[in-house]
Amino acid sequence: MTKRYKTLVKLWVANDEQLISATRTFLEEGMGAALGVLSETTAYAERLSTASSELLENARKFSPPQSLIGIEIGTNPKSLRLRIVNELAESPQEVLNCVKRQIKTIWAEADAKEAFRRRVKDSLSVPGSKSMLGYAKIRMETGAQIRARLTNLQKLEIAVWFWKTPEPPFVDSP
Q1: Which among 11, 35, 51, 169 has most CB atoms closer than 10 A?
Q2: Looking at residue 75, which CATH number applies to its domain?
Q3: With 80 as the cut, is the pLDDT of residue 118 above it?
Q4: DSSP secondary structure string, 47-72?
Q5: Percent of the chain at pLDDT above 90?
């Protein structure tokens, strides 16, 4: 597996609703146009838009106001990778454990559409719950793989991979 990624975007944005909205637009429109020009990554523009939108919204909701949210997009011959890094308003280890449980549950479901339906039911039945509907949407609409971890500074890092080959060369367990 090739591990080195050529960085296409690397930026930090303050956790402010307007700034996050502008960043989502940039990633959706700007990166979509840029990736559309690169023949090997044309198929990734829409999937990147979906994943970045969902992950930025999660980061905005669960980070302290005005904290910084990091975004990095990179490519190599086998994949396109999106990474979002953010501070957490709650206990980092508890949040990580919750996120990993949700990821494991969503990606363990044989049918991505069924995993999404279950998250919708969960979110409707328990108001205010952290049903992680965005992760289920990412799986259903992008077919990406996902990993969650804490950085050395106790920030949450969510990485999503979009494979250029039909089958991923490895399965990264959350």
Answers
A1: 51
A2: 3.30.565.10
A3: yes
A4: HHHHHHHHHHHHHHHHSPTT-EEEEE
A5: 46
Q: Please tell me the least confidently modeled range out of 1-10, 109-118, 157-166.
A: 1-10
The answer to the question of residue 173 being in a domain is no
DSSP code, position 127: T
Q: How many residues does the chain have?
A: 174
Residue 174, in any domain of the structure:
no
Assess contact for 157 and 59: CB atoms under 8 A.
Answer: no
> How many distinct structural domains can be found in the chain?
1
What's the pLDDT score for residue 27?
A: 84
The answer to whether residue 172 is domain-embedded is no
Q: What is the largest CA-CA distance in the chain?
A: 44
* Sequence-ordered list of residues with C-beta below 8 angstroms from that of 168, at least 6 positions apart, any chain: 79, 145, 161
Question: pLDDT digit string (tens) for 15-70?
Answer: 999 999 999 888 877 776 666 555 455 567 788 888 999 999 999 988 999 899 99
The CA distance from 168 to 134, in Å, is: 22
